Amino acid sequence: MIADLPAVLAPVFAPGGDVRLAIRCGGRSLAYGELRRAVTAMRAELAANGVEPGDRVAFSMPKSLESVVATLAILAAGAAYAPLDPGLSASQVRFVLDDLRPRLFIATPSRLQALRQWEDAHAETCCPLASSQRCAVVDERALRLTMVEAGNDGDAPAPSPGLATILYTSGSTGAPKGIMLSHANVESFVAWGARTFAIRSSDRLINHAPLHFDLSIFDLFCGLGRGASVHLVDETTALFPGAVRNLVEAAGITVWYSAPTALARLQERAALKGLDSLRLILFAGEVFPTPILRRLMADAPRPEYANLYGPTETNVCAFYPLPGPPASDVEAIPIGWPCDHTEIRLLDGGGRDVQGGETGEICVAGPSVMQGYWARPDLTESARLGSWRADSYRTGDFATRRGDGALMFAGRRDQQVKVRGRRIELTALEAVLNAHPEIREAAALHLPASRPGGALGVALVAGGERLGQGAIRAYVAERLPESYAPDVVEWLDGLPRLTNGKIDRVRLRSLFEPMQVN
Amino acid sequence: MDRFDEIVLEWIKTVPSAQNMAGLNARSDLIGDGVLDSLAVLDLVSFLEGRFCLSLPVEEFVPENFRSVAAIADLARRLGGSAS
Known about the structure:
The structure holds 2 protein chains of 2 kinds.
Chain A: E1 21-25, E2 28-31, H1 32-48, E3 56-60, H2 65-76, E4 80-83, H3 90-100, E5 104-107, H4 109-121, E6 135-139, E7 144-149, E8 163-168, E9 178-182, H5 183-196, E10 204-207, H6 215-225, E11 229-232, H7 235-239, H8 241-251, E12 255-258, H9 260-268, E13 280-284, H10 290-299, E14 304-309, E15 318-321, E16 337-338, E17 343-347, E18 360-365, E19 372-373, H11 377-383, E20 392-401, E21 407-412, E22 416-419, E23 422-425, H12 426-434, E24 439-447, E25 455-462, H13 469-479, E26 488-492, H14 505-512
Parallel strand pairs in A: 1-11, 3-4, 3-5, 5-6, 10-11, 12-13, 13-14, 25-26
Antiparallel strand pairs in A: 1-2, 6-7, 8-9, 9-19, 14-15, 15-16, 17-18, 18-20, 20-21, 22-23, 24-25
Helix pairs in contact in A: 1-2, 3-4, 5-6, 9-10
Chain B: H1 3-12, H2 38-51, H3 69-78
Helix pairs in contact in B: 1-3
């Protein structure tokens, strides 16, 4: 038994159930007894290699049993885990390691080699990582660490006690930022999730989101915390709807939680049709286009559905259990009501609570709100609403209150743009386009460099016929102010996505304005 | 290499992540070597369905059928695609 086990791990180590399935990935699995032994052994390896309570340990690994064992072992060692996006380039990994200064960096051999090659090629501009950074490679398929470089303990990083994890943002709008979540943050969210969705030991949860995406906190800790099994969708499986369907069917998945994009890609191939083990489908991270959600609910009518809302900085802070399929394709899905551990205010530009159905910025406070951005007290301070509560966060998202009090998402601060002097709400344009029967997915973006005053571009994925620009403009002009009619229309086979499922707006913009990017 | 293989190989060569790959051929590992990301898979299926006049059923939309140019060409033939 491990002394001083964090509360979030205590149920995983509760006596009994040794032979019950805990984790499965690919063809490999661990029962609870095996998981406890693997975590205990890796924790001992971490401790033997200098990891102490309050430390940070970063890792870059594909989805695997090893990545979960490492996560739990780092927590068991009293340290915070920092899972890096496996899609990061070597230079981005280097940036995050320099920013975070973890006690240890764990990687697969190929990832560490890629980092070394990049460093060798940039030796004149950066010091070798080996001089200060302790590194380990994980023996793939062996659940063990192999130390390769001891690093330099004279340059030991300052501890950060109480942290459970540091999740780096994608950096699509500036340098990546590390979002610090404490054990108390994680515990309050996990307790809410397990209670609200009645997770039980007979459940089989999918883990579709990558580990660096906050959705995975629900899968891992609500699942393992209630003695359920967690089934990891590895990066290859996630690309192929037929493989995901096979996994759901073979494992008898009962609880699904992912970004809407993942569900939309499955729905496109009716991949969840007839799978009757599912009891609950949760989605978060983006607006789910209503027409696709309606088709999904027609394919899979049995599960309950809920829309979960919350940036990584707050984890889930509001949710909306759907009473049934939306009545029409133009009906927006609410983000619902605050979770019972959360308080939400909608504030106008002057910091006053909005009245009635007015639009205001969503400000959140409660025990799940982050400790701040790693090494960025300036950003942390500007993200707080200090006049309200110390544990508050200004999301930059806007919402209105419906008659029954349910919050309706109304776009992001950075999705309100000015084109030729007129204010455009990109989310509103996307919602209108998504409701068109011939359009499967839509993304709107401001193209500042395309012409004087900027232009309004839309990238569309066809659900049927590819309409001409004139037809698109006429359709939009019937439903929104004339200034919303797009100047440029591009048809694509799919929208570029980040590894967390969100639209990659940098890459998307490069399709419109290739000369302006890089 | 028959006509199916040639058409698929030509298309794969247009994928950005394939352009730096030396010696790309019909047996190259498209998944292990990271040629097919989520956007490329969508583009590819859209291309296959249009170019070969076929419809990909979900049970065939699995990694085994997309491991290599040869596997993709086999899939297109098996689904009754037309390379004309």
